[in-house]
Amino acid sequence: MTSVTQIPVRNVLVVGILLMLAGDFMFALNDAMGKWLVASFSVGQVVLIRSIGAFVVLGPMLARQGSAKLFHMERRDLQFLRVLAMTLDTMLFYAAVVYLPLADVMSFYMAGPIYVAALSHLLLGEKVGWRRWTAILVGFCGVLIMLKPSSSAFSLPSIFALVGSLSFAFGIVLNRRLRGTSDTSLVTWQTVGTLVAGGVLTIGTWQTPTAFDVGAMALLGIVSCVAHLLITRALKLAPASTLAPLHYTLLLWAIVFGLIFFGDVPGPRILIGAGVVVLAGLFIFHRQNTVATVPPENVPKGVS
User: Fewer C-beta neighbours within 10 Å, C or N terminus of the chain?
Assistant: First the structure.
């Protein structure tokens, strides 16, 4: 009898893990597609059409939820800050991949959990012990290795990636303060933010795309939304502490896609720095799982 009841639980866990892996793959695919598109079109134009495409997925979800819930929000000031942070994250990510290899940009975003841990202590008053503070400092050292501090160190694309990853982490921390808002509402307002920003940045930079190009940019938004949904479902089926380390497969996919589609090979500095960041992030997840249950919001979402 015991074994019979345990089998479904084990199966559910496996499904959660598979959905998480699929979601991360979709995010990596989204990032690779974005890098390919911003090589021919402005960041604003790509983000604008991408945001419109996202409503192919969001539309039915909004119809099911109803408009009343969309406009009835908790803490409008924090909602605005979150939209601003996530919009900045998206715009800077695509701006960075115009100039940097995909794996290089993704390496900066792998520090997201480290930033989240630090910001949670500073902004939310969450207790962070000395072990996690040590891991946070080690993780920052990994970021510095990737930035290569020198007279010419902080190149503009690297700054884009760094500030984008910090904006991403700030948005994730705000998610914790807005738990009463539905995922559909959060993603919708986030998409509206990127839609507006993309529209503004498109002024004076619009290039008439072919039907294929429009379809590719719209597909970008669909892929991103599907990835969000897969990871959200995975977190409902398996513990966040089990799924969190799987998110680092994004870096692996970034290296693979970068090599296959763009011929990019990450240098030893990026690989070493990324390795330090990943190890520090995994330790933080381990400590959070040891001292308390890891909140789902601590799992880094897709960067773009």
Answer: N
Helix (H, G, I), strand (E, B) or coil at 172: helix
pLDDT in tens, 95-153: 999 998 888 888 888 887 778 778 877 776 767 777 877 887 888 788 877 777 654 45
Coil, strand or helix at 154: coil
Q: Is 108 exposed, middle or buried (0-12, 13-18, 19+ CB in 10 A)?
A: buried
CA 188 to the chain's CA centroid = 16
Is residue 225 a contact partner of residue 183, using CB atoms and an 8 Å limit? no
Q: What residue ranges of the chain have pLDDT lower than 50?
A: 1-7, 151-152, 293-304
Q: What's the CA gap between 208 and 221, in Å, rounded? A: 19
The total number of residues shown for the chain amounts to: 304
Q: What CA dihedral angle connects 34, 37, 42 and 45, to 10 degrees?
A: -80
| Dist CA 283 CA 278 (whole Å) | 9
Name the CA radius of gyration of the chain, rounded: 19
Residue where the block lists tokens 């050292």: 141
